[in-house]
Amino acid sequence: xxxxxxxxxxxxxxxxxxxxxxxxxxxxxxxxxxxxxxxxxxxxxxxxxxxxxxxxxxxxxxxxxxxxxxxxxxxxxxxxxxxxxxxxxxxxxxxxxxxxxxxxxxxxxxxxxxxxxxxxxxxxxxxxxxxxxxxxxxxxxxxxxxxxxxxxxxxxxxxxxxxxxxxxxxxxxxxxxxxxxxxxxxxxxxxxxxxxxxxxxxx
Length: 203
Description:
Structural class: mainly alpha
Radius of gyration: 20 Å
Helix content: 55-70%
């Protein structure tokens, strides 16, 4: 007798999930956040609407997951698990690695286009901005602060440093340069931001 192998439903489900998230980001890049619909996502991904609603309760939930998925395997961790930053014991080296990865993401068209579209919508939508900070930016910022606290414990960062201010000095210039396309996002620029910030907040 020969036995037929059962289809791997988990693998098929993961393929469908990835197709939905990829389709969502593509559509946001093309038509903007406000014009994306569940119907359009389903058509682009080649799935039925019921498949999307089985995993996500709303369009907003799909969109947020699509942006979370962008950072899977990236320099700041992310994705569906706990967000963590590298901790080799060398705060300077770790921050440079993370900031370089962030600069590289901003320069990647596959990342840059949907994120720019989302930022454009956030500027005019306070509710969307609040959701973004609660579900995306907030957890990532907490992971960054956890790494900074580890640096404080190791004596590599001033014990009384304002961690929100440290993050502002690290990331705001990079974000503004990307947002306004005012200069290249090079590894050297990322390193310079880390050097300047640590000079300001060393013990």
